[in-house]
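Curious: explain these tokens?
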Amino acid sequence: MKIWMHLIPLVFTVMTSWAHADGTTLKAISETIYVPAYSEVLIGPGSSQQMAITIVIHNVDPEQPINLQMVSYHDHQGSQVQSLLEEAITIPPFGSWKHLIGIKDKTGGVGANFFIDWTSETPANSPIAEALMIGGTGTQGISFTSRGRVIVREVAGASQN
């Protein structure tokens, strides 16, 4: 066996460690997170499958609560379809918040997405924001997830875009 084949597990382990450390040690006082979602997926020429979407936001900080200031749902054109919060809410350490966009809701389309604004009084770990899509007809089903990406971050004393 060639020597490079023995190095492949090491490379993937190191890459995973970097990604894991970056995601769990970074603390902020506010962020805007973009989460791609799909209320419909194309399954063939002129054919699509409607999907239900559950947006879930997990506070992964063991000590600090986070405050959801805004969660909005947007369509494939980028236009806001719905504001999902009437007022700010607090997610306790290791708590989560969820909202369902029903399978019959066609307003999002193929390129639906969510924007999330959160804050914390003291620096906190970035939450994990995911969209879970599920749909199906008859005996066939499809499900998958999409994880959010921070697009604006404010750390104590500075802002990072």
Q: What stands out?
A: Confidence is low (pLDDT under 50) at residues 3-24. The two ends are 46 Å apart (CA to CA).
